[in-house]
Structures are given as C-alpha cells and as structure tokens.
Amino acid sequence: MSIRILLRFSVFLILIISIIIVSVKFQDIYINSEEKGLTEQKNNQSNKGKKGNKFKESKEYTYRIYEEIPQGIVKKISGLSFLKGGPVTLEDLAYIKLTYWGFDDRTHFGEIIVHKELAQEVAEIFGEIYAAKFPIAKMRLIDEYQADDDLSMADNNTSGLCMRKVRGSDNYSKHSFGIAIDINPVQNPYLCQGILLPQAGKDYVDRQDFREGMIVKGDVVYEAFKNRGWTWGGEWKTLKDYQHFQKNLPVESVE
Ligand SMILES: [Zn+2]
Q1: What is the distance in A from the centroid of ligand 1 to the CA of 158?
Q2: Which residues crowd ion ligand 1, with CB under 5 Å?
Q3: Which residue of 42, 47, 185, 242 has the smallest Cβ count within 10 Å?
Q4: DSSP secondary structure string, the chain?
Q5: What distance in angstroms lies between residue 1's CA and the mean position of ligand 1's atoms?
Q6: Mind listing the pLDDT tens digit of every residue in the chain (255 residues)?
Q7: Contact between residue 190 and residue 196 where contact means Cβ atoms under 8 Å apart
Q8: β-bridge mates for residue 2, sequence order
Q9: Distance 66 CA to ligand 1 centre (A)
Q10: Is the whole model's pTM more than 0.85, yes or no?
Q11: Per DSSP, what are the bridge partners of residue 232?
C-alpha cells in the first residue's frame, strides 16, 4: 500500500516537474521571439538612416553617415584624433560606417571620420571605389594607433580625421579639419626630400610598376575624388603624397 502511494506521488511529482519545464521552455521561446522581433525592428529603424542604404551583410556597397558622432566613438577619439580647442568641433564632423573591398576579394566593414560637409560625397566616393573592386587594406579610426600617423601608415591603414600639425611646420594639416583622406599608405607612400613614409612603401616608389592598391592618375580612385573637386597629393610638385586626397570646403570656413 505504501509503495503504491509512493508510486502515485512520484508520478505526480514527475508530472509537476514536466509542466514546469515545458512552461519555462515556452516562456523562453516566447521571450526570444519577442526579443528577436525587437532587434529586427531596431535594425530596420537604423537602416532607415536618412542618408544610408540598408546596412547588412551583402555584396552591395553599404554605408551609414552619423551626423552626430556616437558617444562611444566620441570617447574613443577624444584626446587622440580629436582635440578640444582644435580647428573644428565635434559638431563639424561626421562618422561614417561603410563597406570596402579587401585585398582578399571580400567585403569588409570600415569606418572613417570626415568633415560633415564632405560626408555624403566621401560615402559616394568609396561607393565608386567599392564598385570597381579597388582593394583597400584597412579602414580603422587612427585612434586605434593612438592617433600616431606613423603607426597607422605602417599598418597600411586608410584614414581621415586626425588633428595634427604638418610635418616640420606649425600649421594644422588638412586631416585636422576632416577634409583629407589617406588611402593604402604602403602602396601609396609619402615622398619628400629623401623621406619615405611608411618604410614599407619603398617597394612602391616606382609608380610605373603598377600593382593592386596603388593609386595612379586616371584610375577609379583618382577619378572619384577629382570629379568632386578634390586634390591628389600624387600630383604635387614639391613632394609626392600618393595616399593623400584633400578638398577645401565650398565655404572657406577653415584655415
Ligand atoms: Zn594625408
């Protein structure tokens, strides 16, 4: 008799436990699907960024312009590539997230900070570069190199904003205003009076010996910038800065 009671009790207990497990699982599934719905919605909302395309994994070029630099990025750049009391304010700058074509023939996500006035055309320029599958090695904020241009160049990084003085001068470089961009510094080094930067660029001093990632007159990178009124450092007379493009703003609010 007592065994029977025990048996009944255990069956009852198993039943209760099963009910609890099932209900917890169900709740889990329910919460998950709700959360998923929420994140999807969030993504959709952010995809509707007023100037961007859909931002997701795809073969298509995608970009998003943040006219207000996200707080996390502000924190990251403050005291490094961005200096309070520098030539432009945070409000003058925009943060762009975009895709670029890599040397590995794959799409990568990159980021760059430029002057707000130029953000839209910079996004378009990199769209043309992407469409042509011109390879870019890296596109990270220079702050990941402690805003040290030499380190960024040595790592073949493509970058925009960096508040710094021109080499051997007291003037702010165009990068300080977010109106200059350096692309693939190794394949496109800086050359001035025997100074070569970065050192790894020594294999690319001969501009006739064309290899992937090099910028040459008339190519897609050159045209994309030049068609929008940018200047190329590869066409300067006194020095050559093959990685460098810059543009003076329509309203000469800088200098
Ligand atoms: Zn430059």
Answers
A1: 10
A2: 180, 182, 244
A3: 42
A4: -HHHHHHHHHHHHHHHHHHHHHHHHHHHHHHHHHHHHHHHHHHHHHHT-TT----SSSSS--EEEESS--HHHHHHHBTTTB-TTSSS-GGGEEEEEEEEE-TTSSEEEEEEEEEHHHHHHHHHHHHHHHHTT---SB---GGGGTT-HHHHHHTTB-B-----BPTTSSSBPGGGGT-EEE--TTTS-EEETTEEESGGGGGG--TTS--TT---TTSHHHHHHHTTT-EEGGG-SS-EETTEEE---SS----
A5: 91
A6: 566 767 786 776 666 666 555 455 444 433 333 333 333 333 333 333 334 444 445 578 999 999 999 999 999 999 999 999 999 999 999 999 999 999 999 999 999 999 999 999 999 999 999 999 999 999 999 999 999 999 999 999 999 999 988 877 889 999 999 999 999 999 999 999 999 999 999 999 999 999 999 999 999 999 999 999 999 999 999 999 999 999 998 655 544
A7: yes
A8: none
A9: 23
A10: no
A11: 245
